[in-house]
Amino acid sequence: MILIGKDYKESNESHEGVIDWLLYRNAKFDFLSGDDYYENGKNWSLEINNSLEINKLNLKNYNSIWFRGFLRHRDYLKETFVKLESTNDNISELRWRLGQEISKINSQIFNTYKNAYQLPDISAIKVDKFSMLRKAKDLDLLIPNSLITNSKKELLIFLKKYKYIISKPLYELVYFEDKENVTFFKTKKLAIESFKSLPEKFFPSFFQKYIEKDIELRAFYLEGNFYTMAIFSQLDPQTKADFRNYNKERPNRNVPYSLPEEIENKLRILMNELCLNTGSIDLIKTPDKKYVFLEVNPTGQFGFVSKPCNYYLEDEIAKELIKHDD
Amino acid sequence: MNKKIFKLFANCVIVKGASLATICDLHRGKVYSIPLPFAQFLEETKNKDIYQALDKFSKEDSETILEYIAYLEQQELGFWTDEPERYPDLDLQWKSPEHISNAIIELDLLSNQEIKKITNALTDLYCKFVELRFYKTFNPDSLDFFAKNCSDSVIRSITVFLPYTSSINFQEIENISVKYPRIVLFVIHSAKEKYVSQNMNNPKIKFISRKIDSQNHCGIIDPKLFSIKIPVFTESFEHNSCLNKKMSIDIEGNIKNCPSMAQIFGNIKTDIIEDIISTTEFQKSWNIHKDLIDTCKDCEYRRICTDCRAYVENPEDDYSKPLKCGYDPYTNQWKEWSTNPLKREAIKFYSFQEFLKN
To answer: Which residue of A has its CA nearest to B75?
Structure first.
């Protein structure tokens, strides 16, 4: 049997696509979400004593696991936090502590599946961008020159060297919402004017040299195979720095792309070293035909690659899960 | 400029007809007509130096070709490159994870027991899109029963056609619309003009003045109905773009390919839907694709056109051209199909004359 780990609260078209193929191919599968352990009130326990381990997680035997997510911390105990009266410090400390507890509990729940096939390996998905870049560099993949600093002085030296830089979070992309607005942190090209008001010392942040693009590449990786798409983001000023500033009237051209074998080989080694059997790899191809590695998103979106390139990735994923369920 | 190879984007695909060609932009959903020789030229040079290829042409011709290419570039249908091998063609494979992808059900007279048979079958067959039709009377209880029994299905959307009558209860429709998010649209047909322009608070409710009281309204071939998308384009190579994986149940419970087609394969009162739709007889029309159909096989729109097997020019011939198509791919003229003298016999056969007067 197959298990799909996902956050019930998140609806996602690419997930539905895979589920359609699993149904069509007569696969048996269940869903699992953090909701099952933290919110819906079912009894469960994990006991360990000097002679044995007793698992009362109410789960069947699963041979094959597709991991797409589990729980969004901010959703947990939402009600309680609304009613809670305390100092902001206490509340944020409590939130953070709870988050830490949740992640420890989760890894114990996931430990149940340590012998099952996992797509991707649940313990490998939390890798940060700087470590990825370090590994990529060791494999002689080109990377954007990168900097973590808290110092305006260091930053200005870096900026002078590369003229244009970008800033992005080291962990996942975040967004914040309140009643009226949703704010996304997108990649933005920054020039010197942007830094005038910056204090001498600031929160340590991640900066990269802005790489001139010919095209952007998204390579969906699945068990050694690459399904790559070229994004012609440079034809449109609106999408030049970040193609996610979508132009709905005239969407960027997205077409199949075939990476040079040498790049694929290096990326394959990189994925092995990161213990990832799947992921969405971001690359830039520069005007002088160099391939620059940016990052891997282990549970990245794939529907937007699958559809315009007619790759049927949803079916490929379903087949992979079924193969390991025999 | 050092890039000398002009390539169409992989999802902008050339389709050649008898005397014109099209570029089907399957990404942005547009279709462009181009001269046949230019299509030929683009295909021959897709991985070659354009300027070398132009040497064979007169100065005047090569200027014309370059003007055309500039137009394609400006429309973002193609791009210059010196690495054509990095940009493979679109894989034209087609598959779909359902046994029946869409179903049209005439609900007017069906009992709950019959409806249950249908919803069970749609669930088992992984049907995605459902159109429910009420021609003369709308029965909200049947609709509610239908929608309730779809809860375990993978149905993505249900569209409901119902007639405007003096006893229509909008609150009831509103309630059903809120209760079942899968119902994406209510089309209230035979409505008075004053309603047609009126906007309901609920964007899921639309009025049309047209009377939909039988199946004859279907089958029209019109550029407005072209579907310029990868799944339609790729499906059309081996399958009928309208009937493939389609099923319909008519007002009497007959199981058909589509409500407008005469042939009956079984009836839900006596037969099992799943058995009927898996027979080769039922699926025969699924595989009548455009390359087999008279005239359509020479048409540059054949990969994006809807087709129709219910109303054809020669009703005796399975491979006859759709009756309600006014396009001639040999002269590239669009004409009104219903006044075409050559189609008179077929129109009589389908007894459309009354319908056309309305």
So the answer is: A250
Using pLDDT thresholds of 50, 70 and 90, give the confidence band for residue A195. confident
- Across A18-128, the runs of DSSP E, i.e. the strands, are 29-32, 45-48, 53-56, 64-67, 117-119
Cβ contact, residue pair A24, B126, below 8 Å: yes
Put simply, the answer to whether B10 touches A21 (Cβ < 8 Å) is no
CA–CA separation, A172 and A295 (whole Å):
11
Q: Output DSSP code: residue B334.
A: E
Q: What is the DSSP code (8-state) at residue B198?
A: P
d(CA B243, CA B256) in angstroms, rounded, equals 10
Cα maximum dimension of chain A: 66
Cβ–Cβ < 8 Å for B119, B132: no
Residue type, A181: N
Q: Which residue, among B217, B191, B208, B197, has the nearest Cα to B358 in the 3D structure?
A: B217
Coil, helix or strand for B256?
strand
Are A227 and A150 in contact, with CB atoms under 8 Å apart?
Answer: no
Chain Cα centroid distance, residue B240 = 9
Distance to chain B for A22, nearest Cα, Å = 9
Dist CA B29 CA A231 (whole Å): 18
The model's confidence at residue B127, banded by pLDDT at 50, 70 and 90, is very high
Q: Is the per-residue pLDDT at B77 higher than 60?
A: yes
- Nearest CA to A234 out of A213, A254, A251, A248 is that of A213
Which residue among A230, A235, A289 sits closest to B76, beta carbon to beta carbon?
A235
Is pLDDT of A224 > 60?
yes
Q: Which of B117, B80, B101, B105 is nearest to B155 (CA)?
A: B101
DSSP string, A162-228: HS-EEE--SS---EEE-SS-EEE---EEE-GGGGTT--SEEEEEEEEEPPP-SEEEEEEEETTEEEE
Strand order in the sheet with B157-163: B205-207, B183-189, B157-163, B129-133, B102-106, B246-249, B254-256, B266-267
Contact: A255, B93; criterion CB under 8 Å = no
Distance CA B319, CA B233 (A): 20
Tell me what pLDDT residue B11 has.
Answer: 95
Nearest residue to A44 (alpha-carbon basis) of A29, A33, A59: A59
Cα distance between residue A61 and residue A30, in whole Å: 11
A201-229 in b/e form (b: 16+ CB < 10 A) is: eeeeebbbbbbebbbbbbbbbbeeebbbb
| Nearest alpha-carbon partner for B83 in B37, B138, B46, B52 | B46
- Calculate Rg over the CA atoms of chain B: 24
Cα(A313)–Cα(A16) distance, rounded to whole angstroms? Answer: 12
Q: Give the H or E element holding residue B235.
A: helix B230-235
Structure ipTM: 0.90
Q: Is B230 close to A310, i.e. CB distance below 8 A?
A: yes
Contact (Cβ atoms closer than 8 angstroms) between residue B20 and residue B34:
yes
3-state helix, strand, coil in chain B (%, to 5): 35, 20, 50
Q: Which of A229, A290, A227, A233 is nearest to A263 (CA)?
A: A290
